[in-house]
């Protein structure tokens, strides 16, 4: 695993887990969040449900991402499938959020920036990690 992939996965996965921790604490009334940090219609029950619908996706992509970093550090070949799952789900999470805001016709540079980051940074790594090897076989061929 390259240093850049490791760093981007750690930033993304720790960032998403931190976001969900803050969101849960705010939902429980244990902390308040500044209004400028909140997305449009933050208190609308439909938008709240939409936001919480990302929790399982974000948790799975974060767990597989952190696991892939750990496995790569141990030279365990299972890091690659974990990374591919995490990267694919990261793209999906960003794309789903961007699609939602685009359909609503709303543009907040901060929220769009975060979600474009999620949607775009994994793409070059997905292409590189699925590039056929010198033998022409995909890297995930049956073993």
Description:
By secondary structure, this protein is mainly α. The chain has six helices and no strands. The chain has helices at 3-27, 45-52, 55-73, 79-104, 109-120, 122-129. The two termini are 20 Å apart.
> Please, how many helices?
6
Overall morphology: elongated
CA(first)-CA(last) distance:
20 Å
Structural class: mainly alpha
H/E element order: HHHHHH
Stretches with pLDDT under 50, minimum 5 residues: none
Please give the share of residues in helix: 55-70%
- Biggest β-sheet description: none
Using only C-alpha atoms, the radius of gyration works out to 17 Å
Mean pLDDT: 91
Features:
143 residues; mainly alpha; 6 helices; elongated
In short:
The chain is mostly helical and about 140 residues long. Helix content is about 70%, strand content about 0%.
Question: Helices, strands, pairings?
Answer:
Layout: H1 3-27, H2 45-52, H3 55-73, H4 79-104, H5 109-120, H6 122-129
Helix pairs in contact: 1-3, 3-4, 4-5, 4-6
């Amino acid at each position: 695993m390259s240093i850049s992939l490791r760093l981007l996965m750690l930033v993304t996965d720790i960032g998403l887990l931190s976001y969900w921790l803050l969101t849960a604490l705010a939902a429980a009334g244990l902390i308040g969040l500044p209004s400028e940090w909140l997305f449009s219609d933050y208190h609308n029950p439909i938008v709240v449900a939409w936001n919480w619908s990302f929790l399982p996706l974000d948790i799975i992509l974060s767990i597989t991402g952190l696991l892939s970093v750990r496995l790569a550090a141990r030279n365990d070949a299972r890091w690659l499938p974990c990374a591919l799952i995490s990267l694919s789900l990261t793209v999906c999470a960003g794309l789903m959020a961007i699609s939602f805001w685009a359909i609503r016709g709303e543009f907040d540079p901060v929220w769009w920036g975060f979600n474009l980051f999620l949607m775009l940074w994994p793409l070059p790594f997905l292409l590189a990690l699925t590039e056929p090897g010198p033998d022409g076989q995909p890297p995930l061929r049956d073993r």
